[in-house]
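Note to self: keep these together.
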Amino acid sequence: MYAFFVLYFLREAGQLSGYELAKTIKDRTRGYFSSTPGNVYPVLRDLEQNGLVKSGNPVGKRRKTLYRITARGRKSLLDLAKTYKERFERITSFFDKVTTEARLKPREDGD
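Structure:
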């Protein structure tokens, strides 16, 4: 999921540092994904090795590296979105089935 979030927020913002990405993921998912730079930087490294993001030269006083999504990364983001959408639809369908069955079938143990 972190790769999806990194690609999505880079596409949305244009460019961000690893710290900014970690904060954005945590804030925008309302803490559901408690992202830290420690788990974002390995994802950024993998994405960059696969040509999905590109890092720029360090900038500013603190020499932070900014990342941006590539054209290949935008395609990968679309593929990931389709994959996660299908997964969540299957999960939602399963829970719909469970809740429907729970309403229709009385408990057998009499409680």
